[in-house]
Input
Amino acid sequence: MPVVTLCDIFYRSVDTFRKTEHLRFKQGDRWLPISSDEFRRAVEELSMGLRALGLERGERVAILAENRPEWAYADLASLCAGAVDTPIYATLTPPQILYILNDCEAKVLFVSSAAQARKIAEIRDQAKHLKHVIQMDAPASPGTLTLDEVRAQGRPALEKDPQAVRTRAAEVKASDLATLIYTSGTTGDPKGVMLLHSNLVSNVLGSLAAFNGIGTDDVALSFLPLCHVFERMGGHYLLLYVGATIAYAEGVDKVPQNMLEVRPTLMLSVPRLYEKMYARVNDKVSGDPALRQKLFQWALGVGREMFRHRWQKTTPGFGLSLKHKLADGLVFSKIRERTGGRLRLFVSGGAPLAREIAEFFGSAGLLILEGYGLTETSPVIAVNLPDALKPGSVGRPIPGVEVKIAEDGEILTRGPHVMQGYYKKPEATAEALEPEGWFHTGDIGIVDGDGFLVITDRKKDLLVTSGGKKIAPQPIENRLKTNKFFAEIVMIGNKRNYACALVVPNFDTLEKWAKLTGLSYGSREELAGKPEVTAHYKDLVTALTLDLAPFEKIKKVAVLTREFSLDAGELTPTLKVKRRVVEQNHKDLIDGLYGGGEPL
Output
């Protein structure tokens, strides 16, 4: 039977693979399995329970929860009931949640815990359409039902007609609206992206090429929020389609520990994880004896040469192969052990990945397949493949996806992956979608001679100096973030006469440097404010950007005393920096950088 809806993917998965460990989650200090039969039963009972609560086809169900098996139950139960679901990031505040609940007109809301239920209690009387709140954790908070109670409500009807959910799911059409996913809102209010079942299914099938060879023996660690379309398509629906086991991480801060426990074979992530792993390795090496540092640098050079042969599809010589075998045993195998020792590939999306980081992991035998897409494109437009990759690019377009570059350099795409529009926002839809079906991504890029797509920057992020020069900040920022002293950096300079930057230090590295140089300080805030530290970062920036054009070079830096945060509104839930918010929050500091004229 052809797979045309997300409901089809679910039933194909539980009927075909019949696994004893389809999902995994951690309870206390133990990882517990959920079989295919348990998975199916949970989804079907919950789906019938939602119908018992009066949920009708096409009505909205919202999900406010962290990654966990119950997230999958809620999603698939809603879809199989013919409803439309709306995921909400667990980190959002009550006013942000209220906006989404009212905009999507949610009738039912799933919450993960008492903490999330308390958020809803603050705003429930303002949620115009909300009838039922279902809490995944027991006991129930005031005004909520537990998920087990709703399952129990659905059980009698399911026992009377065991095919009831399958029958309703079979009535769902590929052209039906499946989900409303609200954009992160890096500018303005979030917009509800309307994705059909056919949008997401086409993206699953088109992306399978990147996952060639993945199947029932694979284990994926799911930690990127399932609210994010990248994890939802690639780490949820696609993995169900191929029958891989999905293990839900305890949280972002527990990912390193969970990797050692689960020993995954594949993972999806945004570049921030890879940047932190890269920084940790380099930080450790910098504290090793000189001989070990030399060994590491030698191994890295050998690994990069071997990786170059891989992506250029050339054959390494006997001598290089022998050196690589030695380098792998002495250095790279230890790096892989930190990921659990079984990882075959990472997939990166959500933001640009620095080429140096991709090459570093590739050298260590940890392949990162960088891809590209947006919520509005379900999400994948292009992706590198194990046998067709090019560091610095985001790969070639996946089957069924068209890409062209507009006259101003913007990337346009067309195909079955493109959204139907923004919910209740016809003007925004018309601005993004041409009548011929071309979607404006807002990203600037090129397609090289081999057909690989290369992203150069966000159209809205381009800095235009007062002299009319255009600067693409992301490639410069990504280059600098590969240095162990930088946790984050944001270039500024739009409508100014020169470029500056705000620097978030890697405080662990900076403190070691301060100790070596004899710089005294009482707190990290005091350390960041030292003129010697500012001078150190300016020297680093200068040394790492010698090849840039004069107008692209960063003339001054300001060192921040804290990291960017969700609470301050400076990061999206997927850890992308909101440039406009950062600039607003640090306006006085930025204005100070432009006092006294342009430095030489």
